[in-house]
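Researcher: I'm preparing a figure for a lab meeting and need a structural model of a single chain. I don't have an experimental structure, so a prediction will have to do for now. The sequence is pasted below. Please return the structure as tokens so I can convert it later.
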Amino acid sequence: MKNILILISGGGSNMAAIVRSAQRDNWAQQYQAQVAAVISNRAHAKGLQFAQAQGLATQVLDHKAYASREAFDAALAQVIDAYDTPDQPALVVLAGFMRILSPAFTQRYAGRLLNIHPSLLPAFTGLHTHQRALDAGCQFAGCTVHQVTAELDHGPILAQAVVPVLAGDTAQSLADRVLTQEHLVYARAIAQLLQNR
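Model: Understood. Here is the structure written out token by token.
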């Protein structure tokens, strides 16, 4: 059984969408995979409540308790590695995990570390993607599921979803429309990755 670990920092809406998809589509039987745990770097992340209500293991690892990014990443790796089995390394899914990971960490989980970014990469890496898309006059926006590499918001693209930019859109209205697509495309990309393996 392949364990899927979801890392969050806040409300966890993408995590919840993935968990619901796993339940609805019965990933355990179909792909020999399960969402095994939800890990947060913030004790008060609202997504932890949802995960606990679903009977999932949860763990908090406060990044502020560590002297450096590398020290935090090393502790996080220990937690993740506890879910590995010799023939089935865990899949690590970033779902609103608001930490920049060190190159050593991204290399350690290369090929099995995923992220969703709220733009059509390679456009608008980093923060404030929706406002930047509006400022640039884009007619379309969207989101991208990609494998994580040491370079921020780069790495092989697994899936994208596109939404139109509408007259009168604000950064918030555009973000809300993109988020509905994130909830669909992330779970589908994970399922596709599991199926291909």
